[in-house]
């Protein structure tokens, strides 16, 4: 049998045309898909079709952390995929899978982000559990902000540091600083923990908040995170502030004498993503020794000898990602992955001074690669045949990761000596689900001959050659990417649609990640033209192969996928209906109102010619040509794509007598996180396409 992880390599080796690639990939997935690594044997054929309620009952896994000796793995579970967390639990598993995982923490709240002490004896983690001994530990004032600061009422406690033995027992509080701790790191010698949190509120600030004197000036720094160093023996807490800067991430140098810091002028999202600088600070003197790079995506990972730092940064126009290795003493830079046929996500130094581990998306899957920092040679190391979310490395080179596969929504995994093993099994009910089959597909652009990749999901029991109703779901970004991973959530509709008999095409058109920076730049100053042609080229291929019924086509997506859906329904009559989720419909107003203007500025400038290009690309300008019913969905508190973008599109459709429905979700930002709202979106998506296709 051919393992699913080998599918892409098999297809590439065939070197056939797009139609034969599709036929081969479908045949392989339908006929010989092997069980996922670590999956339990299946006694009977799956019998249940996946539903929104079933998806809501899934458990997510994240924060996989390998012990220093590589023998044990920590991971965190929480109900729901992509839901706003109200409960999370830390688990401990044997890296060799020899014993079942055991629950390490028991709490009614959030226990997460666990980290091993350097000697492997203890585990620090963040929790919002109640702390009855708050006054007896390092910190300040644990009182919540209420109407009367002197008479606090019960409220959710701030996230604080806790410590538990690796052998179990009761967790002990380490801090009570009265503000949420955002992240932390053990010192290499295990004697200190550095964490990031804002300053405690003054009495005046507490009174202002209680009285709702809470106006905010745009782009003004507020609640800047500081560095706090807790000495575990003395419980003395030391504060370090970087003048007029928010510290969003830190990492200790191997000898514990320096920090690598990611800092920005404010804690705003635009500054975090596009205006953060990488600095090196001397811990003893709290002085900044050097600014390594201006404009980074990550804090940086230290080489074992402490001489270099690996990090990622946006390209100069903020489209695409660069990898770098910096010499700490001189500031000299070496770029990594400039010619990689993929998109770098993160760089982490291995236990070898010459090798960095790169997490990258290549076409439709995440791959962990070994990178020789001298030659810039990338060599694949781990292919989960899906999506890898995070990794950690033990002293002996064993790697823990969390991720998903097409039929496995979330689990923790261990990679050792060339073998990948699942060490958790948090969603065993999925083995009873009749899922759609997931395949990477490729076609050729009619515009310029480029290869275009995507993911095709076909219904259970689908037989190629029978034209079927089809939904196209463009992704967000536009530099996001669809992967051959689990595709069932409020924003990934493929599996629930496949369960209802739909073929679903998830295209990675130009502008997407996964094929290098030049490909991602393919929509610069040109949204909706080349990328849309790439999408319909893939659709035409499916029609030509007898897979898609051209008379029953729908399109829908979220964010940039919402833009593409609005573009399609106002430019092309082939689609009978569209779902526009948090979609950009007027580019000029978005450029002035989004909370990440630097992101949008990478695609369009501000000259009259740029404004004319924005207007030409705006679905709102061509709304009179809308050819079918439109469902518009939007978060009520969306700042990325303000809610008025969806409202204007809906109002314009209705004023012109078009069939349109508009639904907003209170309290929700750009990404919907409340469980009932997520369920409603999935149910509406199914009902809408069923009604119109």
Automatic annotation (TrEMBL):
Signal sequence residues: 1-39
Record's keyword terms, sorted: Aminopeptidase, Hydrolase, Protease, Serine protease, Signal
One Pfam family matching this protein: PD40
Keyword Protease (UniProt): yes
Keyword rRNA-binding: no
Cross-referenced Gene3D superfamilies: alpha/beta hydrolase, TolB, C-terminal domain
A Gene Ontology biological process term: proteolysis
Domain Peptidase S9 prolyl oligopeptidase catalytic: 494-693
Chain coiled-coil ranges: none
GO molecular function: aminopeptidase activity; serine-type endopeptidase activity
Protein name: Dipeptidyl aminopeptidase/acylaminoacyl peptidase
Organism field: Sphingomonas gellani
């Amino acid at each position: 049998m051919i393992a699913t992880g080998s599918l892409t390599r098999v297809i590439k080796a065939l070197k056939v045309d797009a139609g034969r690639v599709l036929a081969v990939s479908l045949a392989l997935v339908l006929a010989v898909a092997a069980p996922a690594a670590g999956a339990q044997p299946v006694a009977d054929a799956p019998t249940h079709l996946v539903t929104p309620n079933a998806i809501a009952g899934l458990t997510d896994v994240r924060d996989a952390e390998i012990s220093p000796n590589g023998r044990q793995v920590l991971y965190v579970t929480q109900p729901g995929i992509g839901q706003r967390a109200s409960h999370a639990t830390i688990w401990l598993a044997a890296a060799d899978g020899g014993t079942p995982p055991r629950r390490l923490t028991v709490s009614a709240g959030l226990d997460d982000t666990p980290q091993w002490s350097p000697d492997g004896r203890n585990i620090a983690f963040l929790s919002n559990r109640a702390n009855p001994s708050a006054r007896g530990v390092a910190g300040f004032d644990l009182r919540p902000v209420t109407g009367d600061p002197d008479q606090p009422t019960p409220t959710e406690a701030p996230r604080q540091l806790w410590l538990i033995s690796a052998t179990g027992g009761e967790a002990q509080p380490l801090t009570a600083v009265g503000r949420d701790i955002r992240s932390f790191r053990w010192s290499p010698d295990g004697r200190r923990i550095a964490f990031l949190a804002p300053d405690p509120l003054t009495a005046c600030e507490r009174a202002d908040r209680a009285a709702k004197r809470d106006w905010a000036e745009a782009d003004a720094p507020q609640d800047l995170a500081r560095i706090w160093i807790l000495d575990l023996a003395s419980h003395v807490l030391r504060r370090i502030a970087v003048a007029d800067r928010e510290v969003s991430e830190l990492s200790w140098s191997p000898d514990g004498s320096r920090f690598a810091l990611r800092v920005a002028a404010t804690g705003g999202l635009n500054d975090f993503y596009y205006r953060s600088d990488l600095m090196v600070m001397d811990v003893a003197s709290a002085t900044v020794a050097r600014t390594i790079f201006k404009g980074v995506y990550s804090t940086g990972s230290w080489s074992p000898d402490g001489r270099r730092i690996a990090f990622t940064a946006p390209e100069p126009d903020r489209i695409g990602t660069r990898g770098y290795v910096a010499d700490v003493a001189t500031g000299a830079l070496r770029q990594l992955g400039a010619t990689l046929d993929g998109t770098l996500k993160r760089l982490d130094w291995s236990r070898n001074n010459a090798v960095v581990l790169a997490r990258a998306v290549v076409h439709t899957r995440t791959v962990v690669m070994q990178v020789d920092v001298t030659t810039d040679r990338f060599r694949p190391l781990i292919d989960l045949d899906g999506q890898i979310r995070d990794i950690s490395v033990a002293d002996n080179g064993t790697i823990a990761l969390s991720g998903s596969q097409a039929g496995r929504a979330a689990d923790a995994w261990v990679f050792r000596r060339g073998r990948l093993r699942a060490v958790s099994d948090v969603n065993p009910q999925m083995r009873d689900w009749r899922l759609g089959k997931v395949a990477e597909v490729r076609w050729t652009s009619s515009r310029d001959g480029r290869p275009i990749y995507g993911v095709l999901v076909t219904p259970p029991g689908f037989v190629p050659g029978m034209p079927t109703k089809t939904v196209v779901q463009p992704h967000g970004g536009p530099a996001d990417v669809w992967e051959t991973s689990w595709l069932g959530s409020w924003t990934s509709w493929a599996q629930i649609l496949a369960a209802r008999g739909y073929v679903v095409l998830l295209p990675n058109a130009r502008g997407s990640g996964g094929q290098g920076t030049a490909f991602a730049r393919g929509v610069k100053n040109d949204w909706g033209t080349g990328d849309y042609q790439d999408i319909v080229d893939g659709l035409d291929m499916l029609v030509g192969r007898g897979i898609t019924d051209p008379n029953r086509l729908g399109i829908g997506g979220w964010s940039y996928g919402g833009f593409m859906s609005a573009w399609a329904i106002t430019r092309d009559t082939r689609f009978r209906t569209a779902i526009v989720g948090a979609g950009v419909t007027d580019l000029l107003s978005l450029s002035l109102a989004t909370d990440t203007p630097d992101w949008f500025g990478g695609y369009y400038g501000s000259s009259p010619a740029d404004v004319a290009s924005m207007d030409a690309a705006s679905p709102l300008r061509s709304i009179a040509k809308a050819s079918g019913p439109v469902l518009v969905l939007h978060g009520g508190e969306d700042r990325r794509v303000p809610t008025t973008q969806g409202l204007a599109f809906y109002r314009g459709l209705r004023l012109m007598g078009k069939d349109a429905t508009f639904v907003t979700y209170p309290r929700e930002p750009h990404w919907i996180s409340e469980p009932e709202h997520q369920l409603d979106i999935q149910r509406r998506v199914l009902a809408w396409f069923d009604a119109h296709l």
